[in-house]
Automatic annotation (TrEMBL), chain A:
Record has Lyase as a keyword: yes
Catalytic EC class: lyase
Protein's recorded name: siroheme decarboxylase
UniProt domain Siroheme decarboxylase AsnC-like ligand binding: residue ranges: 64-130
Enzyme Commission number(s) of this protein: 4.1.1.111
Endpoints of the signal sequence: none
Lyase is among the record's keywords: yes
Listed pathway(s): Porphyrin-containing compound metabolism
GO MF annotation list: lyase activity
Role this protein plays: Involved in heme d1 biosynthesis. Catalyzes the decarboxylation of siroheme into didecarboxysiroheme.
Automatic annotation (TrEMBL), chain B:
Origin superkingdom: Bacteria
Domain Siroheme decarboxylase NirL-like HTH: 15-59
Pfam families recorded: AsnC_trans_reg2 (PF17805), NirdL-like_HTH (PF22451)
Organism whose genome encodes this protein: Thiopseudomonas denitrificans
Protein name according to UniProt: AsnC family transcriptional regulator
Annotated signal sequence range: none
Domain Siroheme decarboxylase AsnC-like ligand binding: 69-156
Length: 154, 168
């Protein structure tokens, strides 16, 4: 990955310009051409290094969301994970090393919608979901510096 | 920053999400593309984006990297049992560590004592252990217990898949 690609990602993971021809505006900021930017973004998209370009929503404002965990008996984990993945309200699902071993984010248009999904999960799996909606954000995902020295400052 | 968005903007936000959740196309003017999909004039689309950002419904409009593909293959969900009376300040400070991407206060539950969640990222297992240690030292006596949940498998990651189809 060339230096321009690194600078572009570190700079624009926090925000892209909202104006006509934003890639032109990005190019001006980095001192390159619009084609340079579009080419690199396309390459990053092809290799999967760029998830997407667009608005990152705060679901608690435009709907409702919660972090949910299940303590699944190991023998059932694949079956339960497949069921959880099949729910349209689930967008992240991770197996983690803990008694609570399945962690996923539920999002929906309202809290009552999520309550209904949690009830379905309980009835379908026989497990009690650990429902941990956000109380307060201290840092939302704004990205982090990726290409600087990753040593922690003292 | 207002605390909520108007019902009409909420409806528009849900439409906007459905058009952008898979990412916008790499075209010269993606906002004009979005305006076309929204069936709104470009100016109104830009004004809507601004309102949603001002109200906090949009966190950021960005090029979102895939950290795994970029070498950040190590992450840990660190969870902390922090004194309620200090959590506002300490949560903010933990969120400011540069290796923390998310830091949220969440409720305690029966059988779940941890009220502060911080996602840490690194290039090696040792690096995230060092990061965790820095957070632990920072919280000091105000933290009674902590653990880290390392993901052994990504089972689903679809980016933004949220709402059922917007109601017409």
């Amino acid at each position: 990955m060339d230096l321009l690609t690194q600078r572009m990602l570190d700079r624009f993971q926090h925000g892209v310009p909202v104006c006509a021809r934003p890639y032109q505006a990005m190019a001006e900021e980095l001192g390159c051409s619009e084609a340079d930017i579009l080419e690199r973004l396309a390459r990053l998209q092809e290799t999967g290094a760029l998830s997407r370009i667009g608005p990152v929503m705060e679901h608690s404002k435009a709907g409702s969301s919660s972090l949910v965990a299940l303590a699944v008996p190991l023998a059932d984990i694949e079956q339960v994970a497949a069921y959880i993945n099949s729910l349209p309200e689930v967008n992240h699902n991770y197996e983690r090393e803990h008694d609570y071993n399945l962690w996923f984010v539920l999002t929906g248009p309202s809290r009552s919608h999520l309550d209904a999904v949690l009830l379905d999960i309980h009835q379908h799996t026989g497990l009690e979901p650990l429902d941990l909606p956000m109380v307060k954000p201290h840092r939302i995902d704004l990205g982090f510096p990726m290409f600087q020295d990753s040593e922690v400052p003292q | 920053m207002s605390d909520c968005i108007s019902p009409s903007d909420l409806k528009l936000a849900q439409r906007l999400m459905s058009f952008t959740e898979a990412g916008m196309p790499l075209v010269d003017d993606p906002w004009a593309w979005l305006a076309g999909r929204m069936e709104l004039p470009v100016e109104e689309t830009l004004a809507l984006l601004q309102r949603l950002q001002d109200s906090g419904a949009i966190r950021r409009i960005a090029a979102v990297p895939n950290h795994y593909r970029l070498g950040y293959t190590f992450n840990g969900m660190t969870v902390w049992d922090v004194d309620d009376e200090h959590i506002d300040r300490l949560g903010q400070e933990v969120g400011n560590f540069h290796f923390v991407s998310h830091c949220y206060r969440r409720p305690r539950r029966e059988g779940w004592r941890y009220n502060l969640f911080a996602m840490v990222h690194g290039l090696s297992a040792e690096e995230i252990e060092r990061e965790r240690d820095l957070v632990r030292r920072h919280l000091g006596e105000h933290c009674r217990a902590d653990t880290m949940l390392v993901s052994s498998k990504i089972l689903k990651k679809t980016g933004l898949r949220i709402h059922s189809k917007p109601k017409e």
